[in-house]
Amino acid sequence: MFAAARFVDPWRFQPNVEVYLLVGFLVAAYIYVVRVIGPKAVPSGAAVITRRHLWCFVLAMLVLFSASTWPIHQIGEDYLYFMHMIQHMMLSYLLPPLVLLATPEWLLRVLIGNGRTYRVVAFFTRPVVAAVLYNGVIMLLHVPGIVNTATVNGPLHYLLHVALVLTALLMWAPVVGPLPELRMRPAGTMIYLFLQGVVPTVPAMWLSMADNPVYRHYGQQAVRVWGISAMDDQQVAGVLMKIAGGWYMWIIMGYIYFARFGKEAADANTYRRQRPVTESVVRPG
């Protein structure tokens, strides 16, 4: 995650100590917050976290760990661009919403208060602002010069991953953020997610339709993992970005639709079925 990979044997285990330390720190911090700060911040008798918070945190740490360590990290950074794409999708599509779902409302309110910091967070999590920032980073991450440089420049590589995760957190905040006043209504959320699935199709189509490898680093790699050519690797990455990313958004939109509008339709049908019975009871004589 923090340093560019440079190994001759893609299947030789390579430890990522910095990732182990990061995940360990985050786990320790979460335990401390839940055990020490939580009981003081929530009303007496109220739950500090729910089972959902806990499971989402566990899943978030698993995603962070698996996306940032061997083999996904090493193979994605040095050998296969489609594995690099999987890594970025894990860090932008899976990790941020899980982190937000793992964060109880009281914790974020303790962290940002209700003053200037709150106003800054509220501004940057506005749907338009968050979408522009996130998609700007996505487009930046596909510029050939930046990709080629980041694979051999550890600090730049790290900063790009940080920018991806931070802007993805902003992008997902209007959807699953812990503060209800900053979340969008279901109809707006579905439109928002639909548009989020449209923008990445531009670099995805570019990758899929290019006549030559667009990234020198991957195109000139002599070691071909699984015998995948540079062009096939690039086209698979484009297909993953377009189809897998698009379907992911559609699945979430479908869940929102059936969870909200399906419930409303069911409630309306229940009301219509019960209304004649109620009227027959209250009708005089």
From TrEMBL:
It comes from freshwater metagenome. Its main location: membrane. It is found in: Cell membrane. InterPro entries: Caa3_assmbl_CtaG-rel. This is Unannotated protein. The chain crosses the membrane at residues 20-42, 54-73, 93-112, 124-146, 158-179, 191-209, 239-258. It is a multi-pass membrane protein. Pfam families: Caa3_CtaG. One of its GO terms (cellular component) is plasma membrane. Keywords: Cell membrane, Membrane, Transmembrane, Transmembrane helix.
